[in-house]
């Protein structure tokens, strides 16, 4: 009888709560220097959770924005639309405002590119800064975050998926990526 083999990432799994505390400290130091509070906008799903928690912990009163980048992705034509499309809600005029775009994981930079395209549909901000909980490397586009909870190269065979518990504490789930070859085999089976 063969025992199942389990694999684990070759990279250590980051502590999402520790990263959040690091990120919050950076943003707290930044926000006090701003003449007008920046507008926080979170990318659904994990980035929206991050922005929501930062908004509360920073005591911000400006409405929080959330965006769903599904229709702005550069792989929309090949992947189609997800069944989990969320509502975009940006209730503030972004014209000439400073925006902090929040996302949970920075990897290729393609999600950030899509988010920037959507943000500019709501006006032309004076500045857009990126805040991420974790930068895992693997950039395909020239994108860098100004505010980062932590960063390191992370095993490309695994995803990092932000989760939160009932007390709104963050942690990462680390599922193995499904390769295109195994996806095709499952579809053809």
TrEMBL record:
Phosphoribosyltransferase domain location: 23-151
Gene3D superfamilies for this protein: 3.40.50.2020
One Pfam family recorded for the sequence: Pribosyltran
SUPFAM superfamilies in alphabetical order: PRTase-like
InterPro entries with a match to the protein in the record: PRTase-like (IPR029057), PRTase_dom (IPR000836), PyrR_bifunctional (IPR050137)
Name recorded for this polypeptide: Bifunctional protein PyrR
Species per Swiss-Prot/TrEMBL record: Ephemeroptericola cinctiostellae
Gene that encodes the chain: pyrR
